[in-house]
Structure formats: C-alpha cells, structure tokens
Design goal:
The protein is of the alpha+beta class. The protein has two helices and two strands, in the order βαβα.
Length: 68
C-alpha cells in the first residue's frame, strides 16, 4: 500500500497558495494510487519540538548512549 505524507507548514493554513496546490497534487496522487493512506501533519498548528542538547547528543553519540 502507498503512504503519502502531507506536510503543511504555512501560517496561512488552508488559505495559502501552497496548501491549495498541495491539495491538487494529493487529488492527482490518489487518482493514480487508489486506496493510498494519507498522513497529514500541520507543522504551523502543531510544531515539532526544538532541537536541544539531549537530541543532539543522541544523534551524535554511539547507539544506546542517550543522556538522562
């Protein structure tokens, strides 16, 4: 099964030109990939956490060396 990740990051939300274009692209993708799963994330409504020292240490250190 095909999975499509749809990320929106405009502060204008659905009113943004990029959001409207993304909807059109999704329609076309779904036409070609019937039954595809769409995972939608609105990064301006629910932004990911900022990178901090713990994250940096986890990705730069050896496996299993996550700080407390």
């Amino acid at each position: 099964m095909t999975t499509i990740l749809h990320l929106r990051c405009s502060p204008r939300g659905a009113a943004a030109f990029s959001s409207r274009m993304a909807e059109e692209v999704l329609e076309r993708l779904l036409h070609h990939h019937k039954g595809a799963e769409i995972i939608f994330r609105d990064l301006s409504a629910a932004p990911p956490p900022l990178v901090d020292a713990g994250f940096s240490a986890a990705i730069l250190g050896p496996p299993g060396s996550v700080p407390p």
